[in-house]
Amino acid sequence: MHDSMTEDLTGLYDKADMVWVMVSGSLVWIMIPGVGLLYSGLSRKKHALSLLWASMMAICLVSFQWFFWGYSLTFGPNSSKFLGSLDQFALKTVLADNNGASTLPDIVFCYFQGMFAMITGCIMLGGACERARLGPMMVFLFIWMTVVYCPCAMWTWNANGWLNKLGAYDFAGGGPVHQSSGWSALAYALICGKRSDPLTKKGVPKYRPHSVTSVVLGTVFLWFGWFGFNGGSSGDASIRGFYANVNTNLAASCGGLTWMFVDYFRCGRKWTTVGLCSGAVAGLVGITPGAGFVPVYFAVPIGVITAIVSNFAVDVKGLMGIDDGMDVWALHGVGGFVGSCLTGLFAADYIAATDYGVSIDGGWLNHHYKQLGYQLAACVSIDAWAFVVTCILLLVMNRIPFLKIRLSEEEEEIGTDAAQIGEFTYMSSNIYIPEPVRSRVPKDAKNETISDDADSIPLPPEKV
After folding, report:
1. Domain count, the chain
2. 110-123 pLDDT per residue, tens
3. What span, in angstroms and rounded, lies between the C-alpha atoms of 186 and 390?
4. Which end of the chain has fewer CB within 10 Å, C or N?
5. What Pfam families does the annotation carry (predicted)?
């Protein structure tokens, strides 16, 4: 324990390392509304605001969960191989020690890893797009972070975690972030059931994105924030972190081009913008576990292979009959799996060594053939845990009347925005939404209309 009253705690650490990781954490934060914009753009107009709401809610709720016990359950000292401790409950004693990363004080490491927890929860919520009740969603997210994300992250990144001790490589979260959220989103979609659509009796309903502009803007935020996501995972301002960013950008670019070309031949000779964005996200997911392990020329096949496999995985959900409308499983669950396996093939010891003092056996590139087995063990354990535990949690919640996870058919028809929020993305509805009276209105204005650039909505007399 250090005493801030008698010691220069800042002087214990390299300031450049702390600045790099703090800025990287802030870049990760911008990814979360980026996911909201991406999901909102892919949805139908009447549900668009609910997905933006979910991204902002995830920031708030997961921030509290991380403070309350999430950080301690993941990185707390005296952890077992499978579960963290509560030694740092409510961030008790989280200050200048370095239990999480040797190069950083705990408070900086806690901030950075908290952003990873937030983006993971936000990604996972896409599995129940357009049909989830928002109150139970908040309860579910808090519990899910505790019983799914925290254990998976603890296994992978805590020095005592069993996957860490096994020797599985995961530079920035291919397992704890992408695979856990992707497979849990698949479970959320499965337990919720398909969206109601009278025209789709068989198969899974498909809808055009209501705003490709939002899809592009969300992808821009994600891509930009990913430089903090992967680059900051070095834990210091080393060449390894900067090298990871070159890998990140190259894999995303190759993934975007690949998905777009695949869609060109599969979708009527059209250069689809949504395909370009989906491929970029797939490439980003694929490179995440190996960004600080693989030579830069392997970022190209990682981006290409992940995009191709994820593209065809989108069709698999139709075969399974599971309505994952945001393709969370295909992009994050499958993409993370592919990226983790490719890391086992292409990891090189000299890349990890660019962070001086880091030593690894490498992957097949170094003739360390067992590494692929370690990667598969990590993938299967995280995927199975995330899917099974999420299913159990949702089935239990569904048996509690006030925690039923799905909207009624009538609420789904009018849209989540009207049924659950009472606000609209574009204010294009004439549905009366009750609002608190914020100022007195003259009596002679009872039947006047309130005008804005979008609509003129009659003000109900009983609310004047």
Report:
1. 1
2. 999 999 999 999 99
3. 9
4. N
5. Ammonium_transp
